[in-house]
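To: structure subgroup
Subject: Chain for Friday's discussion

All,

I'm putting the inputs and outputs inline so they're searchable in the archive.
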Amino acid sequence: MRPPQKNLALKLSTLIVVTACFVVMGAAALLSQNFKNILTHWGEDVQLTVYLSSDISEAGQQELEAYFNSQKDIGDFALVTQEKALTDFRAQLASYAPDISQDEELLKMIPSSYQVKLKSDVSTEEQSRTLQAISADLKNRSGVDDVSFGQDWVEKYGAFVSAINLSLNLVGFVVLIASIFVMSNAIRASIQVHRDEIVVLEMIGATSSMIRKPFLKEGALLGFVSSSMAILICLGMYSVGKTVVNGRLSFLRLGEQLSFISPAMIAAMIIGGTLLGAFGSYLCVRRINDGYAAASQRA
């Protein structure tokens, strides 16, 4: 017997709602991954600038370089002499303030410095702590006037990313619970449609697995189709978003850092969606063949 038109409409609406739930979860994972990609990329450009005193001796510079070499987290470092700093400063100001670029007294105030980079294996999360520790140590050394690093904005961006991730995880959890509830309702409606068949099967001695299996398959199929459709929708959203970023924010060169969720994540979403559908079904069919027929008759 064909299921009523109302049940077909319910299944279609359930498919749409559950797909939307998976789209939200996929979009959350996509946003989280790309925020981290951008943070990692910008974090690679962070470095220490160690400004040297004008009276530092060659032995003092050698002592500083020995310190840099002794630090396990410090990678490359380079000396920027006063002459090179003045040349770079003149080149940068030549087209904007040519009069200042010719002021010898002002330009002589620019000190020599060391540009220090961390090793590539230092994680973005650890960069701030590492740079602060090295900076505090260097400020107490003779021959060092000041130490600076452009980490403030990275810290703020990192805090922003952490807050976004926490919010997305919370939203994802709520949507996950909602999707289980929606799928359970759909399976519960399907059980009601086939209630007479279930009662007959129970009376002739059908086992629990025989009765539950079709509904578990239905829930698993719903989860599989919904999660697969959500992946395709997220892929379309990602393509449109990347096109917009490359077109309107090309000066930030963010397009190179954007990436779609990994194949492992895609597989996890589809497998997880399938298992989630089966679990939602199980919540509804666990009472079948355990007094369900008698209870349904009394109801």
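Points worth raising on Friday:
Residues 293-299 have pLDDT under 50 and may be disordered.
Residues 152-193 form the longest helix (42 residues).

D.
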